[in-house]
Amino acid sequence: MAPADQVSLVTGNKKRLLIIWDFDRTIMDDDSDRWVVVQMGLTHLFKHLRQTLPWNSLMDRMMEELHSQGKTVEDIVNCLNRVPLHPQIVSAIKSAHGQGCDLKVLSDANQFFIETILKNHGIYDCFSEIITNPTVVDKEGRLRIFPYHGSEMPPHGCDLCSLNLCKGLVVKQMQDSTSEDVKKQVIIYIGDGKGDFCPTLKLGIEDHVMPRKDFRLHNLILKSSVPIKAEVHEWSDGEELNKILFRLIDPLEA
Ligand SMILES: [Mg+2]
Ligand SMILES: [Zn+2]
């Protein structure tokens, strides 16, 4: 993309650069579900039930187990508050937001874990939207985790994605929005996992995808039989992610 085009992405009042962030192993270096399972002593039960339940229901079951052990939502918050984030990822998020980009999280983790971690690191307000599996704390104080594509929505019918969330469908719905701003919007998609491949296929020639090097998404892109239209920029850690992101955003560096 020519430098002149880059300038137009972020100048003016309109936010036309949309950065979509996966959460686990992207914003957070570890996996939030794994973190809670390991830190709260659920590894054995998790492994025992892994083959019998879909991931999303399994995590809901894990929260039931914590509740039955007398662990509270505060205990879960305390556990999530120990999650470290790479300082360069935190600063990349803050500066991208500061430069007027629209930031969204699109994740197969869950609302409670993501919101707690982002708030703890002071970056929750940098995101205009968090699209993920919804959560509620019920009357008994148990954290419930539900699928994004719940029973009230028609099945997404995508065989690349898990039943509870097709990220490609979410990206497609963003692109199909009738607003003029959205039509001119350029997407930067940052992720690492298998579930990030479907949305990558929805990106156009003006868009960018930033797969984490040597992780599943990167490998799927490398061996894809379908051409990837978006420009691919791989990254290994927070420092590299920060540099690449700002090369894409900052017209002064071009
Ligand atoms: Mg991930
Ligand atoms: Zn899909």
From TrEMBL:
One Pfam family, short name please?
Put_Phosphatase
Please name the GO terms that the record assigns under molecular function: metal ion binding; phosphatase activity
**The protein, known as:** Pyridoxal phosphate phosphatase-related protein
Write out the entry's keywords from A to Z. Answer: Hydrolase, Magnesium, Metal-binding
Instruction: Tell me which InterPro entries the record gives.
Output: HAD-like_sf, HAD_hydro_PyrdxlP_Pase-like, HAD_sf, Pase_PHOSPHO-typ
This protein's source sits in the domain of life called: Eukaryota
Record NCBIfam families: DKMTPPase-SF, HAD-SF-IB
* Residues given in the record as Mg(2+) binding sites: 22, 24, 192
> Record-annotated residues binding substrate?
33, 108
Required cofactor(s):
Mg(2+)
